[in-house]
Amino acid sequence: MNAPSAQNIERDLTGLWLEKGDTQTQLSGIKRIYTTNLVAYASDHEDGYRVEGILGDMMQYHPGRYILVRPAADTTEAPLRYYVSGRCLSWADPEKRVCCDMVKLVAQKEVIENLYGFAFSILVPDVPVEFWWTGDLPYYSPFFENMASQLSRVWVDSSKFKDPIQSVARLAAFWNKRYPKTNLADMNWIRIQRWQALVAELFDGDWSKYLKDIKQVTIEYGEGSTPLRSLYLAAWLGAQLGWRHHQPRMNDLSKPIMFEGPKGPVEVLLKPIPAPDERADRIFAVGIVTEGEQPAIFTVARDEDPHQVIVRSEINHELAFSRVVTFEHLHSDDVLAIGLKHFEADPVWKKTLQMVGTILVHPDMSLEDKGKA
Amino acid sequence: MPSPTLLENPLRQGLSSGRVAPPCSLVIYGASGDLTARKLVPALFELYEKHLLPVSFNLIGISRSVISDGDFRAKLKEALVKSKPQITDAIWESFSQHFHYLAGGYDDFKVYQALSAKLDELDEKNGTIGNRIFYLSTPPNVFEVIISNLGAAGLAREDKGFSRIVIEKPFGHDLASAKELNVKVREVFKEHQIYRIDHYLGKETVQNFLVMRFANSIFEPIWDRRHVDHIQITASEDLGVGTRAGYYESSGILRDMFQNHLFQVMCLIAMEPPVIFEADAIRDEKLKILQAIRPFDETTVRTHAIRGQYGPGFLAGEKVPGYRQEEGVAPESTTPTYAAIKIFLDTWRWHGVPFLLRSGKRLPKRTTEAAIQFKEPPNLLFKNNMNGLSPNVLIIRIQPDEGITLKFETKVPGMSMEARTVNMDFRYGTSFAEGTSEAYERLLLDCMLGDATLFIRGDEAEAAWAALMPVLNHWETTKPEGKFPNYEAGSWGPAEADSLLERPWRHWRKV
């Protein structure tokens, strides 16, 4: 194996493409396409396999340079090794295959902390650089710090946080102060976007007049984990509708979240319902009750058919409308693929995270100092 | 531009779903026809699946066939399931719950009164707040009667919400009929209410002409007569006339493809930058191009326009009949199924640059593209190059395989100084995770949103007809010279088309 260097990696990749061009088609019909750089960090050996699979699936949506950084399985391994691989997408015309590549960096943990410079050196220039931190939010990591402060966007998945309330509260409290030039993105935010669209469409046109009369919102979620997606949805509603959160700050989401709306208090309940483990935290239904001149109930709920949801409203106890729409489960690669479609900052997410910050308890920032120590 | 009714919904703000149509009713005339089942309803379904179709939406189909609401829905479902087999009954029921049908003659005023009452009832029931779109998907000979009856029934008024009319092509049969139709439609609807549709403008790559030209700084400086040798716009089809012989016999390739699709593509390539990205600013610039087409005279109508008709031949190894052998075609028909025309634009930018437009049926494959061929470089340094030097070509592929290719010369690796042409390729499918939308999906949404950018204004339609009339008149009053049919099905058209190229380095592209 060659010594790890940007030059060797590029040379190996070039060799890989020459080989593919010669052996697979006898033609030089390969096009290497890079629309993005995605650097992913997996916290351990096993997670590395999972993340590698997701990145492989991602390539079909966003051909690019994928760099996976993961710790070595044991301390006897070399301080840093690299592996290159390529993926060609199958198109109708075999002479016009579209290919992109992955570089896997396997290193001892202490080496990883200083690996950011090396990761930068193998990026493809002039295309966006995304950084995906796949695990728990670290208290202290030079690798994370350097990547987060120098790249355009950092992806986290709050569903992987070990202490979700504390970690999300920290993100809300410190991200913009510490990394003012770097956009933060949370895969859980992408996961609820279809729920947002479904809830939003309930209030199009004439129905928007009911928004000011909202009194109660119930969000049902799969029990077994902290309902972060439901919290995000509640915070999004509050942020978009100009509600203010009532004190006290919370660390227990089983209690109602109380907002002050334009016509008085609004209660948001996050209600767990029995669900298999793999569906923990998934939203199952959203119910919105208003108390204006004409009482109304607006609901979005999963159907018995897991690929469908039902959107409906009742005004004055009579069905106003109802529609059924397709609702496919999103896998992690789908979520990232959707997220990477838009490069620009998402102001609604920023507002929502600020609202989350007003709902949750203040994070214990001293833990970061302990991490550094 | 978002609808005011949606801006009132703060939950819509910032959603990635983008532009959502406001509540409205869509009335389709000719609803039992092919276009509704094959294009319009699938497009509406795509909008529905993407949450871009408003919750408050009604579709009312109107045609002469006497069928029930249920039969109407069943027919649409049958057609939709062919392209979307995954649709469940629940989703179909939900999507089609506000689909209705009215049977009646287009000249029967009672049908319009019934329609008016039905729309009022649905506004009340489904919250569509008086917004209406009338889509004419009928043969053009009933456009006028429908429009005048809509006016008489008060359905063109915009007292409560908007009222818009979408007119399918062909917009007129010639300049006189287009002018007459414009007069008739404007007696009832104002220009801002009229949406003349050309589905080519709904195609992603056609819209990309604007982005490519005006959102990049590298193309505009070389986009002129000093750098461009000629421009080829090709729309080829491998199919014959199929079941459209009746229509085709009276229209031919010029009316079917040139007056609308190819002229519109030419306009987008040739137009000057509009001062603002708004419908009328863009359409003003397109109009200038149509008005700048150098008129065909007695000579150029012969030398700059070549017609063809396919005879029997082979496509993909299968024997196919000639045009005159197709069902419904007159045995001595001289209807052109192929045309190639050379156009000069009398503008400062394009003076002397030929725009070579061609389209035909039963050509080797279905493809549409525009190729901008740049001038040859002075071949001083590489005189000994074995292959010669090829001019740069920028190719914008409209369908299929949408994308852009730039051909340029590069050195062949090795000891000798040899150059060869290579391609730099951009493909929509590989650079964007999402597929390109169907043209009707985009255009229906634009119409609902009141964005007429991708629709043709009345003066544009007339200018396009005016430019084409000398050729149409000539072809309709003279018999084709020489052998006719003059190209075999499966070939790239008649050899006579080569005469348009003029220069030895110009070749029709084998797309």
Explain the overall architecture:
The complex is a heterodimer of chains A (373) and B (511). Chain A has 373 residues and is an alpha/beta fold. In chain A, α6 links the parallel β7 and β8 (183-186). Chain A has helices at 6-25, 45-58, 109-112, 116-121, 142-150, 164-178, 187-191, 193-201, 228-241, 332-340, 347-359, 366-372; strands at residues 30-32, 36-41, 64-71, 80-89, 97-107, 129-133, 153-156, 183-186, 214-222, 244-245, 257-261, 264-273, 283-290, 296-302, 308-315, 318-326. In chain A, α2 packs across α10 (332-340) and α9 (228-241) packs across α11. Chain A is built from 12 helices and 16 strands. Chain B has 2 domains: 4-168, Rossmann fold (3-Layer(aba) Sandwich), CATH 3.40.50.720; 203-434 and 479-500, Dihydrodipicolinate Reductase, domain 2 (2-Layer Sandwich). Chain B is α/β, with parallel strands linked by helices and 511 residues long. The interface between A and B is large, with 50 and 41 residues.
Looking at this protein, list some descriptive labels:
heterodimer, A: 373 residues, alpha/beta, 2 domains, eight-stranded mixed β-sheet, 16 strands, 29% strand, B: 511 residues, Rossmann fold, Dihydrodipicolinate Reductase, domain 2, six-stranded parallel β-sheet
Distance between the termini of chain B: 37 Å
List the strand order in the largest sheet of chain B: 8-12-13-7-14-15-16-17
Number of strands of chain A: 16
Average pLDDT rating of chain A? 88
Order of helices and strands of chain A: HEEHEEEHHEHEHEHHEHEEEEEEEHHH
Number of strands of chain B: 18
Which structural class matches the secondary elements of chain A?
alpha/beta
Concise summary:
The complex is a heterodimer of chains A (373) and B (511). Chain A is of the alpha/beta class. Chain A is built from twelve helices and 16 strands.
